[in-house]
Write a structure and sequence with these properties.
alpha+beta, 2 domains, 6-stranded antiparallel beta sheet, 5-stranded antiparallel beta sheet, 18 strands, elongated
């Protein structure tokens, strides 16, 4: 840690710095100001924020659009990187009057990338794969964000007027029963979804899967419960039993698919040529050389929960269970509210 110092002016354009501990003084020259400074053009707040985040500028004659992080190299990707699957119960237009809507969607969290006109074909090919993925799960085409991204969604609607017909619930009682039913339903769906994900990620602990699932509870002020499946991929080391041998990396049970950090799918036999290596930061991963040379190397990872959510059709099963579960739990909560009147 440098010693504290003080500055005193000794002349025009010069200053001195004297250390408080050693007592030594140093005279230095200040940088002279330009006679005719160049005025910069005003920058919009959005462009300034983009520069602070490291977003590259759009090339001359190009256009800036949304693009997922994985890029156009992953031809077999069912769900683009930068997307996360979301299972949520969202309130309808009128406050618990027209019903509740159970929504499963894949939310876009991609980063901005600048594309030239000649890269438009790659973007449209990726968008078409997203549309095919949406049609495969019987989803509706959403507006998305910039760039025309497709958001696969599954909507399950519940009419509270029909569910509460003949019960004689007041408006406040119906709201409390609906909020409790939402939270109980998503709690059950979360446990069942973690078990279903465990079948796709054999050998991975259920606790590790639940850490990648975020559950936002509903309240009377915000009657919407959301269960989000993360798009963060799993490292093999630390999540599966990986051992370095003379014949590569040996593991026990493997997930439904292996891929590289760039999105290229791998055969499980590729682990025979892999090796364990710890980085300078202390993080250990399973690596694979791209060719016969020492470099480049690629990290081997397992797909994220968001990709398994779509590829393994887990979203359809969860929507059916949530639909049946919410109706039964709401009836229980309504009877409990009626019993408290006595």
């Amino acid at each position: 840690m440098p010693a504290p110092s003080t500055r005193t002016k000794v002349g025009r354009g010069f200053a001195s710095r004297r250390s408080r501990r050693s007592g030594t003084a140093q005279i230095f020259c200040r940088r002279p100001r330009a006679a005719d400074p160049v005025r910069r053009a005003p920058v919009s707040p959005g462009a300034a924020a983009g520069r602070r985040q490291g977003v590259p500028r759009a090339p001359s004659g190009g256009r800036e659009i949304r693009f997922p992080r994985r890029g156009a190299g992953a031809a077999g990707a069912a769900l683009p990187r930068g997307a996360r699957a979301r299972l949520g119960v969202v309130q309808g237009a009128a406050r618990c009057a027209r019903g509740l809507r159970l929504r499963i969607e894949s939310d876009r969290v991609g980063r901005t990338r600048c594309l030239r006109e000649d890269e438009g074909a790659a973007f449209h090919a990726l968008r078409d794969r997203g549309a095919a993925c949406a049609r495969s799960i019987g989803a509706q085409r959403g507006g998305g964000e910039e760039g025309g991204d497709v958001i696969p969604t599954i909507n399950v609607k519940h009419d509270l007027n029909r569910l509460s017909a003949g019960l004689g619930l007041l408006t406040a009682e119906r709201m409390k029963a609906a909020v409790r039913a939402l939270n109980r339903t998503l709690t059950t769906v979360r446990a069942e979804g973690a078990r279903d994900m465990g079948l796709a990620y054999r050998g991975l602990k259920i606790s590790a899967i639940k850490r990648q699932m975020r559950f936002k509870r509903a309240s009377q002020a915000h009657p919407a419960a959301v269960l989000t499946f993360s798009n963060r991929r799993f490292r093999l080391f630390g999540n599966w039993r990986t051992t370095q041998t003379r014949r590569g990396v040996r593991t026990g049970r493997l997930p439904f698919r292996l891929e590289t950090g760039g999105g290229r799918r791998l055969d499980p036999e590729a682990l025979r040529h892999a090796f364990l290596q710890r980085s300078r930061q202390g993080t250990a991963n399973v690596w694979l050389r791209a060719g016969k040379e020492r470099y480049p190397i690629e990290v081997i990872v397992a797909p994220s929960l968001a990709e398994a959510f779509v590829e393994r059709a887990i979203g359809e099963a969860l929507s059916r269970r949530a639909r049946a579960r919410f109706g039964a739990v709401f009836q229980q909560e309504a009877k409990f509210r009626l019993s408290k009147r006595r």
